[in-house]
Hints:
The chain has 537 residues and is mostly helical. 48% of the residues lie in helices and 4% in strands. The chain has helices at 4-7, 29-37, 44-48, 56-64, 72-82, 103-106, 111-127, 133-137, 165-175, 179-196, 216-228, 235-260, 282-288, 295-308, 333-353, 358-375, 404-408, 417-426, 454-465, 470-494, 522-535; strands at 90-92, 128-131, 151-152, 330-331, 377-378, 383-384, 387-388, 393-394, 451-452, 501-502.
Amino acid sequence: MLALAVLACACLQFASAQPACRTSVFCDDTLLRPVQLAHVFNDSKTFVDCPLKVDPAEALAALTALGAQPTRSQLAQFVATYFDDAGSDVLPWTPDDWLVAPPLLQGIKDDAYRGWANALNALWLQLGKQVAAEVREQPERHSFVSFPNPFIAPGGRFREFYYWDTYWIIKGLLASGMSQTVFGMLENLLTMIAQHGSVPNGGRVYYLDRSQPPLLAQMVWDYYQYQSGGGARSKNDALQFACGALPLLDLEYRYWIQKHTSPEHGLAHYMAHTDQPRPEGYANDVETAENSPNQPYLYKQFATAAETGWDFSSRWFAADTLSTLQTSDVVPVDLNSILFANEVTLGQLHEQCGTGDSSFYTAAAARRASQMHELLWNDEQGMWFDFIATNGTQNKNFYPSNFLPLWAGAYKGYVAAEIVVGTLQRLQLTQYPGGIPSSLVNAAQQWDFPNVWPPSEWFVVEGLRTSGSDAGLALAKELSDIWLHSNYAGWNSTGVMYEKYDCTTCGAPGGGGEYDVQAGFGWTNGVVLDMLLKFYV
């Protein structure tokens, strides 16, 4: 078992206004600029996922030998000579705890959905990954960060773990009875905190400049609850694990308070620690920022938008285009809802573990709820809105993220749940056959209309389901039915689960953004399995 208490004491350094990481290959302009701007690959991520065949110094010397302005064909030959194929250092992995017919899934009453759930359970075998031995033996040749255990990847171009994806993947794995796999994945994320002070966006060195929505405390709580309710480990073992994880969860919490919280109002915002193009999105960032009067600022905003998980969306625009991103100046409803939920959960865990620190988190949650109501709640509209710090206004556009306080419980004592349920009813979200749109703005970004994303769908449905309102529960069931029907229709016609869908067409995959829609797909499978267990057993 991971030595959590020892890892929590690791010395930590946080970068600010720096390249995404400090490797001479995967994050440095010397190599990234010529290769990525020559478009040796259509997708910038492909190059930074290619492991080196030789040590970095030898590859860089070979690049220098090409002269000041190598041609695209020279660069393509250079890459072919000194780099292996992207993903060649990631191997298939079969989880030891995978079951052909997980007991929980056999309780699904609908025959077709039960068969579908069993088919999704089989997809864990395709998504199971482990890094090759040479990643640990020669880490300088690879862009993977160091972590101890195999994992379930999202799928497609996403060959590594991703922070907030893992929340819903874990929900799906627990539905499938795979608590041993979940334990290993939690160890991986806790190791990230011990090594870096936070969980990075994903399991690559080029993601170390930023995190993602901080859901690890919720993952640990889900695992603890599952094990306590009759999982493979005893309740005492589950509590021992949760208590061992607490110092690292506290450390991550402090990271978000110290590095992402405004002293003016006490609420959090996203802020990546780089002012350079994202290595995995290098060409797009450079080309979009070409005419910007402040390229370092815009580069920081690209990376910060990636930290939100909503990359990219009109939600972060100051005007109408991607080049007007102001992500770090936005106080997001969803981030602060997640931190409120973490404060509640950490308070509960500290109480269970008898540390004496539960009152600190209880007070922090109370302060945050008050500040959220004051700054983010809009009584006239009956919902919360992101706050734009630069002009002191709310962004009064619809986004599913506006409703995360309902999921987190941050509304209690300030707003009746029925008011928020009434707002969601008035929005007529059930009119969309593919699910809840990411916005009502078609801005050609993947986190805008008409795309539907599993996390957004889950947060709205779960908030309604747990609201204590009969009307809320009915609406949760109706929205869940639409989502499940669309996903099932897509599965039936293609045999594929997608990362996102189109709200206007039942079963159709989404589009837009920096890359083609990806299949697999970890968080979609997890959301579906979780909803099936909540509404169909």
